[in-house]
Protein 1
Amino acid sequence: MTQAVRAEPQADGADATLSDSFVALGRAARAAARAVALASTNAKNKALRAAAGEIRRQSNAILAANALDVADAKARGTAASFLDRLTLDPARVEAIARGLEEIADLPDPVGRVLASFDRPNGLKIERVSTPLGVIGVIYESRPNVTADAGALCLKAGNAAILRGGSESLRSSAAIHACLVAGLKGAGLPEAAISLVATADRAAVGAMLAGLDGNIDVIVPRGGKSLVARVQHEARVPVFAHLEGIVHVFVHRDADLDMAKRVLLNAKMRRTGICGAAETLLVDKACAATHLQPLVSMLIDSGCEVRGDAASQAADARVKPAREDDWRAEYLDAIIAARVVDGLAGAVDHIETYGSHHTDCIITRDATAAQRFMNEVDSAIVLHNASTQFADGGEFGFGAEIGIATGRMHARGPVGVEQLTSFKYRVYGDGQVRG
C-alpha cells in the first residue's frame, strides 16, 4: 500500500468504524515497527542520510509545493506569525536536510544497557532501552516537523504515522516522499514513516482512537485547541506539548545590558516559536533603572507591549494589559510586562499563569538563580540565556518532536532517547523460586 495515505471520510464522525485505509495503515505501521526495532544502526543511518540527500535534490520541488501552501494560507488571511512557521526557503530546506544528518550522527538509543545488577541468588539483571513501537504525531503548520518527527522515530527504532496540518499538506507530502526514498534505499519498510495526507479531521479522530490498537503513543504539536482535543479524546498515552507561556524574569541583580540582549533575542529572534518569551517580569527592586530601558527597547524593535500600571508609566506607548494577557501565547511581536515583588513574586506569577514550558531568570546572584531554577516547575528553566534555546537541536538532540510539558516519561525536548522505553533482561543458570 502507498504510505502517503488518503483516507475516505467517515460517515458517522469520530465514533464510526475505521475505514479500510486507516486499518491498513495501522497494520502496516505495526509490521514496520517490528522490522525497524531490529534494524541495525547502519541501516537506520543510511536511510536518514539518503533522505537528506534526496531533500537537497528535491529542494526546488519542495519549495514549489510550499509556495502553493503559503499562497493558499495568505488567501485565507492567515496571521503573519503562522505564515512564518509555514514558509520554507532554501536555507530552511537545507536546515531540514542537515537535521536528518545530525540525527544520523547521534548514538543509537536502542539497546543501551541503562542499569545492571546482580542478585544474591545469582541472577544477573539488565535494564535495556527499547523502542516505543508505533508513534502517531499530529502537528500543525510546520512542514519541517515531517522530517524531524519521522527521522527521530526511525532513529529510535519506531514506526511513525504523521498527520500534518491541512495548511501544509503539499509541503509535508514533498518532504515525506524524500523520507520514503531514504527508507527504500536502505532496505527498510516504507511504512516505517507514513503520512496521512488528508485534510479530513476524521483522520485525527482515527489516530486518537489508536488505529485499531496499532498506535502506542500520540505526540501532538500545535496550538492550544489541537492539544486540548488530543488530551480529551486520545485513547492511547500522550506526550503533552502545551502552549509556551514563556517568562523572562529580570531580577534586582540583573546586568542591564545582558538583560536587554537576552530579552530582545528571547522575544524577537523568532516570535512564532514555542520558546519565544511572552511575558516580561521585572523585579520592583530594579524597576526604577531597568523597566523603562527594557520596555522602550522592545517597542523600538517593533514589539507591542501590554503592561501593568508601572509599565505604562515607564513608556507612554505601552498598552494596558488585561487579565487574559498574562495567560497569552501570542506567537507574535507582542509581549506582556509586569513589575513583581522580588523573586517570590516572579515565581508566584509563573505558577499562577505559566504553562510549565520554559522560563528564565536574568541575574548576577547565583543563589537567587538557583532558587528560581529549583522552585519554578517548568520543563526548561534558564539562567542568563535566551528562552529560544528551548529547542532539541540546541540541546544536542539533533531535533525534537516537541517540548513535553507533562511529568510522565518524557519532559522537555522530545528527542531520540525520549522515544524509547525499556525492558529487563534476566540471566540465570537454573534458579527456581522457593
Protein 2
Amino acid sequence: MEEIIKEHFGFLFEKELLDEMEKYGRIKSVKSGENLVNVGEYIRSMPLVISGTIKVMREDGEGYELLLYFLDRSETCTMMMDCCMANKKSEIIAIAETDAELLLLPIKKMEEWLTRYKSWRNFIFKSYNDRMHEILKSLDNIAFKKMDERLLHYLTEKQKFSKNGLIKNTHQQIADDLHTSRVVISRLLKKLENDGKIKLQRNSIQYI
C-alpha cells in the first residue's frame, strides 16, 4: 500500500502525512455501478480516488437524481467531508462511474490533520473550491442553457474520463443524469451526430 499512496498522492502531501495515510487508511476496490454512499446514510470514512471515476448526485424530493460532478484521480468529495466532520447523514449519492480504487481515511484523523499538516489544509480548501465551482456550473447549465447545450457539456465532461474516447452510457442513463427523457436525449444525440460532433455506436458514443 505504501507504494500506491506515494505514487498517487506523493505530489500532494508531505512524507509524514503519507506515512499516516498508510498507517490508518485502507484501500477499497469498487465495480462500475456500485453505490458508495446513499442519502440518509452516515459516512464513516472519507474516500480519496486512486483510480477510476466516481459520480456524485443529489436527489430531489420526488426521487429524481441530479448530477453534481465527477471525481477523478487524486480527488475527494468535500460534501462527504462535510458530513464526516459534522457527523450528519449524507445528502448526496455517490456511485462508481467506472471500476475504481479508493483510499478510505478514518473520520477521527480529518480534523487532526487540518491542524497538523499544511498540505492537507491546502488540499481540502482546494477541493472545496473545485467542487463548488463544479456545482455552480451544474446550476448554470440547468438555469441558463438549453438541453442541447447541457448535453454537449455533459459529453465533454464524460469524455475527459474516457481512455479511448468512448462514452459507454445508454441513452436512458444520460437522460437520468440530465433529468430529462430518453426520447429527448436520443433526438439530440442524433442531431449531434448529423452535425459531425459525435458518432453513435451500440451503448456507446464516440466523441469526435
Protein 3
Amino acid sequence: MTNSKPVVALKRYERSPDSLRELIGLCGGFDRLKPEHRVFIKPNLVALDDRYPMALYGVFSTTRLVHDMVVLLKELGVSDITIGEGSARGKDYGMPTAGIFRVLGYPLLEERYGVKLVDLLEGPFEDVHFEDFALQVSRPILETDFLINMPALKTHNQAKLSLGLKNLKGSLSLKSRKFCHGRGRALDHHLSLFVEKIRPALTVIDGIYGLEKGPFYLGKAVAMNALAASRDPLGADAAGSALAGIDPETVPHIKEYADRHGLSLDLDDFDFRGTPIQELRRPLRWDSTWREDDTGPRAWDRLGIFGVSMPKYDQTVCTGCSGLYGTILTMVMASYTGAPSTEIEILTGKMMKPSGKAGKTMLLGNCMIKENRKDPSIREAVLVKGCPPSLQSVFDALTRCGIRVREDIYAGFRQTLFDQYKGKEGFDESFFYL
C-alpha cells in the first residue's frame, strides 16, 4: 500500500555535500529530475547593506548549501542550472543582486560549473492571474523544468515566518511586490497564493542558522545546523515551523493555504524521515514588542526615550520602507539626548493616521504622504518623499524634527551587531563566502 502522507526529510547538517545528499535522498527529492532538465535554484538573499557591516547568519541562505546543491546536480549530469534572486535595494543604499552574487563568490559557480546567475528584478516578467488580479512573475522561474526553492529558516516581523511559501515573493517584479503590501488584501493572503502558480519541485529549508526577530540585520541569529526538505511545499514549511518551535497553524499565510486546499497541518499527517524534529528544534522568538500605547518599542522605555512616537509596522509597509524602519529606530536610540522641544510622530505604510497630538508628523514614503498630507490634525508635516525614500532624506527629516543625527554612533551600533558573532561557537563566516 502506498503511503499517502507527504514525505518530509530532516537532517542535521554535518558536512558538505553529504548532508544535503542524504537529506534529498530521504524525501526522494530528485526522483523526478532528469539530466536534460532546466533547473532553477531560488535562495533567499533578501538584501545587503553596502554602507555598514552586516552579519549574514540567518538572514541569507548559506552559500555553502547552494554550492552543495550545484555539486549534487552536476553529479546527476544536469548541465542547465540557473541561480536567481531579486534582492531588495533602496535609492542610495543596498546592493543589486549582481553585487551580492559577487560579494558571496557566486561567480565561481559560473566558472567551475557553468551556472547562470540572474537578477530576477531585471525581468522579463509574465502576467500571472491570481483570483481577480495579476502579478508579474519572473519568466525564467515560470519556464524552468525543475524549481528548487532554498529559503533560509527565519522569523519575519510581518509574516511571522519566512520559509518556502514566503521565499517565492522574490520571484515577483518590484511593482507586484508593492501590490502585495496593499491595504485591500492582507500580505498573508498574497503569500498563501504564490505556490499555486509558482510550484517548486523541491523545497530545501536552510536552517544551518536560524534568525529570531527577523528578517534582517536587527534579528538575532541562532546556530541550529538543521535542514529540512520535501517535494511537498506545505510539508517543508510545516517542518520549518516546527523547527522554529512555532505551530504552523499559527502562521497565517501557511494556514490560509492549507485551509483553502483542505490540507492538514497536523504534524502527524506528514511522513517525517531522518533526524527527529525534537533533536533539531530550537524555539525562535519572532516579533518585537511595542509599548501598550503603540508609540515605540518597549526597548525605548529602558532607554528613557519619550517625546518621539513611531507606531508598530503593519503589513502595508513595503520592503523598501521596512528596510528603513530599523535604521530610524536605531538612529533615534543612537542619537537621543532628551525629549525634543515638540512631540514627534513617525508614520509609515499606507494606513497609519496622525494622532493630532504631535507638533511634527514625519510621513515616510510616497504612500504615507498621499494618505495624510492634507490631514487637518497635522500641525507640521515633515515629508520624506520617495518609494522608498533615500537614506539621506530620512536623516534630513529626522534633523528637521529636532533629532540630532549621529551617524558615528549609529555606525558603532551596526559594528556591534556585526561583531557579536565573532569567535562565537557555531558561527563561521565561510558558510557564506566561496
Protein 4
Amino acid sequence: MELNSQSTRLAKGACWMIRLRWLAIVVVVAGTYFSSNVLGISMQDFALYGIGVLLAIYNTTILLLLKHFTRGQIEPPTQAVKRIINFQMSTDLLILTVLLHYSGGIENPFVFYFIFHMIIASILLSVRESYLQVTFAVSLFGLLVLLEYIQLIPHHCLHGFVVHCLHRDGLYVFGTFFVFVTALYLVVYMASYVAVRLRRAEQAYKEANVQLQEKDRVKDEYVLRVTHDIKGHLAAIQGCLGVVVNKIVGSLNEEQSDLINRAHNRTRKVTYFIKALLRLTQMRLSNNLEMDSFSLKNTICDVVTAVETKAQSKSIALNCSIGPSVNEIFGNQLSIEEAITNLLFNAIKYTPINGTVEINAREQSNCVLVEIVDTGIGIPQGELSKVFDEFYRATNAKEVEKDGTGLGLSIVKQIIERHNGKISVDSQEGIGTKFCFTLPKTSCSKV
C-alpha cells in the first residue's frame, strides 16, 4: 500500500476546505433568506448576502492559488500549501466573526461553529499552529463581544429569535464567552492529541513499509543469484544429457534409455522453471523497461502465427479480431509479446480438442483493451483471486497438466502493471475463461 506524502495530504486537505466553503456559502445565503423571509427574524440581509458574495470571490481566489502551486508537480511544495491552509483558516475565522457581528453576535448559537475550524486545524496543522489558530479565534470573538458590550460598534440584535438583546447582559456574556473559550481549547487539545497519535502511527507504518520493501529487495537479489547459478549448472547437465540422448541411447538397453530420457525431460522442465523464476525476479528488481512506440496490431498477429501450430495440433479454432483503430502503443514490445504469448498458450493448453480460443483487441478511451477468451476447463470460482499469485496453479489445471511453474500469470501481471495497465480474469469451471487487460496508448510515468 502506498502512503501519501505530507505535501500531498496537505494539498488534499486544502482542497477539502475549499469544497466545504462552497457548502458554507450556500448555507449563508439560504439561511439568511429563510431566517428573514420565513421565520421573520430580524437580519442584516444586505450585509449577509454581501458576505456570501465575498466568500465566493475569496474561495475562487484560493482555488486558483492552490492550482498555481500544485500545477504540474507530483509533490506540491509543503511550505507553500501549509501557508495556504493557515491563510484559509485565519481568513475563515475573520469572516465568521464578521458574519456573527451582522447576525446577532453573542446571541447567535452558530458561534460554536468555530469548533469545526479548530478540528480542521488540528487535523491539518501542527500542534503549535493549531493553538495559534484557536488563540486567534478567541481573540477575534472576544474583541467582537467586548466592542459590542462597550458599544464601540453597533450590535445587530436577532429580534424574533431572542426576547431582548443580550450583548449588554454581563453574566450571559461572561458565561457564554467562558464556555466558548474552554470548549475551543479543549477541542484543540483532544483533536491534536488524536492527530499526533495518528501521524506517528502513519510514520511508523511508512518506516515499516520501507523496511519490508528493502527486505523484499534483498530476498529477490538472493533468489536472482541462486537461480542464476542453478541455471548454469542445469544447462551443463542438460547439455551432457542431450549428447547421451542423441548419440548413445541407441547402444543402451530399454530400461537405461528410459532412465536417460526421463532425466533429460526432467532437467528440461526444471530449466524452464528456473528461467521463469529468473525472469520474474529480474522484473521485480528492475525499475525500468526500455520503451518505445510499436505496433500492437503486428505484435498480436505475430503471436497468433507463432501459436497457430499448437492450436491446430488440438483442432482448436484460433480466431483473431483487431479493431481498425488499434495500432501503435507505447511500451516494451518484447514484454507485451511475452504476456500475450503466455496467455494464448495457456488458453490452448487448457482447452479440450475441437474447442475455440479467441483474441480480441479494441480501442477503449485512451487505452487498448485486449481479451483472450477460451472454451477450456475454466477456473473454480473460489480460486479466481489466486490465479496471479506466484507458484499458484488451479486444482483442475494440475489434473490436465501435471508439470507447471505457476509463474506464467504472475509474469503477465507484472508486465501489464509495469505498463500502467490492468488485468482481470473471469471464468466458469467447465465453460471457459476470459482474461482482459488494458494498455495505455501513450507514455506512462509510472514505469
